């Protein structure tokens, strides 16, 4: 069983391009937690560690019931990791595998998510990767916005703080056209992604499918 600092990695919960998430236990708080560990394959990139830890720095500055809580962040033998609240009910993406949601259920999820997104924007942040896989669910079914790894400081209508032109980051099916084409993006890109996600919740499918050109110009 792998040990990172004071945390034992008990069970692999999922993994993505940047990191893997494990179930663990916080010995001081005496509660289950999730530990996100940077993928070993990224260790050769000297910028990977700072990018990975930036997610914790971004979220640590936020305080909202609809945004995941960060408890700890550290580096063990060159391996950075983030300790966050454990969301036991899985992701919205997993829930949508069973098909579209009833209108009342979709609205019950959309309203608090919109509130969390509005709060993040008011703090000058754009998420840039809003999608069902990054919406986690608490035991009571309430949604939590997670994975701020691509978030950037952005103020609406402030060109000096826009994402640099040419930097295409995010998930294709949920990208606003300007984000897809590498143009400067602001909070409106998140609003677009939120609309795509709401459409998917209500219909069980994406509004645009196919190759990149079809999605872009569909």
UniProtKB/TrEMBL annotation:
Stretches assigned to the Protein kinase domain: 7-218
A Pfam match: Pkinase
Statement: the UniProt record of this protein carries the keyword rRNA-binding: no
Alphabetical UniProt keywords: ATP-binding, Kinase, Nucleotide-binding, Transferase
Keyword Chloroplast: no
Superkingdom to which the source organism belongs: Bacteria
Gene3D superfamilies, alphabetized: Phosphorylase Kinase, domain 1, Transferase(Phosphotransferase) domain 1
One function term, GO molecular function aspect: protein serine/threonine kinase activity
Catalytic activity, EC: 2.7.11.1
Coiled-coil stretches noted in the UniProt entry, renumbered to this chain: none
List of residues binding ATP: 36
Signal peptide feature range: none
Matching PROSITE patterns: PROTEIN_KINASE_ATP (PS00107), PROTEIN_KINASE_DOM (PS50011), PROTEIN_KINASE_ST (PS00108)
Protein name per the record: non-specific serine/threonine protein kinase
Species this chain originates from: Kouleothrix aurantiaca
């Amino acid at each position: 069983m792998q040990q990172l600092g004071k945390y034992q990695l008990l069970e692999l919960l999922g993994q993505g391009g940047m990191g893997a998430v494990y179930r663990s236990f916080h010995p001081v708080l005496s509660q289950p937690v999730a530990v996100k560990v940077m993928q070993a394959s990224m260790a050769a990139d000297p910028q990977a560690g700072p990018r990975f830890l930036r997610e914790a720095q971004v979220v640590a500055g936020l305080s909202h019931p609809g945004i995941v809580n960060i408890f700890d962040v550290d580096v063990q033998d060159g391996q950075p990791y983030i300790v966050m609240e454990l969301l036991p009910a899985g992701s919205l993406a997993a829930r949508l595998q069973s098909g579209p949601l009833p209108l009342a259920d979709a609205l019950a999820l959309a309203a608090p998510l919109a509130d969390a997104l509005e709060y993040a924007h008011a703090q000058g942040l754009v998420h840039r990767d809003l999608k069902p896989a990054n919406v986690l669910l608490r035991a009571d079914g309430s949604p939590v916005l997670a994975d701020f790894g691509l978030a950037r400081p952005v103020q609406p209508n402030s060109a000096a703080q826009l994402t640099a032109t040419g930097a295409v980051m995010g998930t294709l099916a949920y990208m606003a056209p300007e984000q897809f084409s590498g143009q400067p993006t602001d909070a409106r890109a998140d609003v677009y992604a939120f609309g795509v996600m709401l459409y998917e919740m209500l219909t069980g499918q994406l509004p645009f499918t196919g190759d990149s050109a079809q999605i872009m110009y569909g």
